[in-house]
Design goal:
Elements lengths: L5 H27 L21 E3 L25 E10 L5 E13 L6 E9 L10 E2 L6 E6 H7 L7 E6 L6 E11 L11 E12 L1
Antiparallel strand pairs: 1-2, 2-8, 3-7, 3-9, 4-5, 4-6, 4-8
Length: 209
Amino acid sequence: MSRPTPRIARLAAWIAIPAALVASGLVVSQASYSAFSSTTANPTSNWTAGSVALTDDDGGTTADGSTGAAMFQATNLKPGSTGSKCIAVTSTGSLASAVKLYSSSYSTTKALGDNITLNITQGTGGGFGSCTGYTPAQGAAGAVYSGTVAGLSTAATNYGNGVGTWATVGGTTPEVRTYQVTYTVNAAATNAQQGGTAAIALTWEAQNS
């Protein structure tokens, strides 16, 4: 048997290289089309925060500093003078919350604030400008504060030491509580209180529970 010449051997080698590349390409091509696949997915997740929100019916007093009408503008007071007003507070927050009442500012001259008592209750009915139809809640649920104007200004100065027992349910239905504030000038006030002044601002704040 005769051996191939060097020229024939080189030619055969060059022919073998393209053939090998073609064969390799066929293997890769076959592999890329033979894989099975499967996926599963969860739809886009979403998060929305709840809210706490309070308004009152005094003409627009809110936590952002806008002001409505003051509850009292009482003048020419004397020992034994008294008066009562109501204000309705509405919660529209989606979260259950606790509502507290506190003094956000206070001033007095001639110690008049120490000689005016406040009795504050909470209940239903009535509203700003008229307590007609107001019914206080029974027992401890209706009691908010009883003491002097000066005493409220030091005992309840922020949400942490605020007074009141209103716990909102939250959701889509507004909840309303009416607060009745009654003041009485001390019948034993002396000449030292003549011409004296007292001023206090009340704030209701809700925090989610």
